[in-house]
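Quick entry, no commentary yet.
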Amino acid sequence: MATKKRVLIADVMSPKAAEVFKERGIDVDVRPGLDKAALKACLGDYDGLAVRSTTKVTGDLLKGITRLRVIGRAGVGVDTIDVPQATAQGVVVMNAPLGNAITTAEHAIAMIMSLARQIPQANASTHLGKWEKSRFMGVEISAKTLGLVGCGNIGSVVADRAQGLKMKVISYDPYLTLERAKVLGVEKVELDDLYRRADFITLHVPLTDATRRMIDTAALGKMKRGVRLVNCARGELVVEADLKAALESGQVAAAALDVFVEEPAKTNLLFGMDSVVATPHLGASTVEAQEKVAIQIAEQMADFLLTGAVSSAVNMPSVTAEEAPRLKPYLELARQLGSFVGQLTETAIKAVTIEYAGRVSELNTRPMTAAALHGLLSPLLETVNMVNALIVAKERGIAVREVRHEQTGPYHTMIRLEIATERQSHAVSGTLFGADRPRIVDINGIPIDAEVGPHMLYITNQDKPGFIGAIGTLLGNAGINIATFNLGRSAPQGEAIALVGVDSPTPEPIMQKIRALPHVLRVQALRFDGSAG
């Protein structure tokens, strides 16, 4: 009986998350506020970890944890999670990119309105009994140009809302296509052009090496004098000292900040400035948004743990809940093909080509490629897994190519894996029998029909009489039972191959005796363990 899945919710989040896990038959413990030592001590007992922004999932926390399969962030950013370390350990990292898009976008719009009419400052002044109408002269936002730096899930909602307020919207986003920009009704521009033209600028990009400290003195100097800046994304996008100088000089008329370099921001060099509106990271802080992201991340994690479906993962190809059962036998076939070739490979791999023909070509092939690379590289690297296989291949300079064919010859579906090494090449093809039974049907151009087992012998030989009897006698005398025996040959009396399934590992002295048999060219013991999941 399979062990029941367990999830730890380590941060405060909507109770709806725990309800989702329980409804799906997953045991859940809600333990917010654990210190690092306590979290480390218990994390090995769980298959999944759900967090928000408080818990820091560091590399040290993850090292040595073998049971954990998925980390879910109830929100967008994953900068509090050591994604490379999680990936190296085969842990899928998911986020909830859609749950707080509307809420964060609405907060950005509120910030724009607050800057235009100085609402927070006027509110504070009025509460003090002052009546300073002339002090708080505002500007209209109608007909003003709003510059979106980033036009993804949140930025596109901001664009929609801003257009409703009769603003002209321009956007810089290298991933925004002209077709998508047209649908959104925004003008796609280069970053310097946006700086030059925008009356208001709002940031909606993730924190990466390319975006970190992007709003510095140089960038601020390119902006229209008197620009108003909004940041509801990540504090590290802005060099706060440079922004302070630009505010003091009047280059920037005002700034609205929901995020800061250091959080919680109890002190900050921008605090106390009349031209700054500051909120304590409220972008996603609405009842609706917190419930949405909690439900979304719980459903995603449950789908993954129960069915293998992967959605909104930052380190693994997506697999929908509908695709997961259809892909499962193909993932196993791809992993077996990769493992077969990997165990035959003796020199560094330079290139891998994976061909998908027939029915499989119509499916989501990226997870299958990851499974094939996992199988291929596992005999060489202990740390490779399906989550990090593509990254490991890239780091080792292995060129990976996918090819799809509608037609597949004699089979309704087929996967072919070919590798090129420094001195040789190998190719193996497989199909599914009965919709879910992986079979190897071709090895280096020689047809064969073989189902792999835990322990196998791969033998190449010259096709001569007496070979089969000699192998059977030798293994029988050694007390090694043959489970399956599959043969293929290029032509009569030509090169032949045998895939022999045995019930137990073959000792090296017996391997030596097989190698010494007449006409034997090569003998390799193969082992097939686990599954693609």
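second:
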Amino acid sequence: MAQDTRQIAREGRVVVLVSCAMCLASSFLLFLSFPPAGLWPLAWVALVPLFFVLEGEASVRRAFLFSFLTGFLFFLLSLQWIHYVTVPGWILLSAYLGVYFGCFGLLHSWAHRMGGVLRLVILACGWVVLEGVRGTFLTGFNWGSLGHSQAPVPFFIGIASWAGVAGVSFVLVLFNLVLVSVLPGKNGISLKKVGGLFLALVLVWGGAGSGLSLSNLKSPRLRVAMVQANIPLSMSWSPSLAPMIVRRHLSFSREALLEQPDLIIWPESSFPNFLWDFPELFDQVKAFARESKVPLLIGAVTKEGGRYFNSALLISPDGNVADTYDKRHLVLFGEYIPLRETFPFLSRIVPIDDFTPGTSSTVLTLPDGTRVGVLICFEDTVPGLARRAVRDGAQVLINITNDAWFRDSGQPRMHLYNALFRAVENGRPLVRVTNTGESCAISDRGRLLGCIEDGAGRRVGVSGVRVVDVVLPREQETIYTKCGELFAILCFLIILGTVISIYVKRGAAPWRKRSEGS
């Protein structure tokens, strides 16, 4: 008897170790699907090991823990660039994001007894809803959504024009679930139902991927110059180096004039230190715009009434500041400390002054009448901000950022992947100008029109200028721009309707029996 007990315990430990190994496999495959490796096809099978574990797991607690472990390790690997700023923050954030994977494990346990296609759809919907919550709760963190892995393939992300990133994530999760359901030895669903399901998906996805662009050959164009000066962080805030930094940006801007741009764009915080500390340098910038007769969009820290703003300044060809956009979505613990007065010790841990969120429209009007929607730093990872800018009339989206904090890691490419989705979702070209890379112009269909890179094709840690023509689309709006996260909401309603239906049926059964007995 004792020997049998030990044998069972030994077998249980083996099962747990094998399950952990499979969770590690899913974590690593997911990591490889995203930058820096960027092996996007792996996302189509990356969740299979995890789902295989969950299919055979009867314990709800272990389903949560195995799923949490997968998510924690995935985010720990894919967000390793955060350790350049804070190691504890990197670990804690990865653990927090892993909880969403754990919640999916709970959902999987709950849906385990359901059968057929409905169960697969419910699970895919659940994944979408959890990604949606993660992207909004506590100011939101959209990095690493499964759909982002497909950003390099414009055809695959065409569905985002009506369903957003959620639509791409849904199809990827569903495909992984189907693979597991048809594995030998599993209680799978019929191949006929699987075939019908994916035929419908291919038709919908193919229609989205091959749809018409909102621009055409006769549409007007905006000739944009992107300036990437590649200023190291160690130099950015040195007062003695401020003149050199401005000269460097002006030198690239003069080089761009040879190609007659309609707009020259500098990255976030391209004007060194604080704007009011170097009025003579700001005068040089305004003089350049006046002499070249080309509007200039630059990033700078501005101040008004004791409040600090992370701003984008539009300098007109007459040398005056024509308009300003102040960043609205601030970075938690990077640009402000929440509850500073309630918990003063936080100011000692993170010794920064708070920025003030802007309240003005994101849309600026160029001298020729073109309306541009400006997104600063991580604002291009917030779908609602880009959508709001387009709804306010933006013909082009412009993201200025400074990713120098994260060096030559996977972060700049992951940031670019977010921007690609904002362009496709709203059917608007997007011009992304950064300090250290990756600076690229993106079409309204998610294709790269041109990037700043060196002779070896490197885009990060290089300096230069690139002039690109972007086609201004007609006034139509995509379904996503009109309806927002409607697809994610529908996913939530499907889950809610299923839950209500199940519990209504369970509650009705005893009533029917009593009625029959009477």
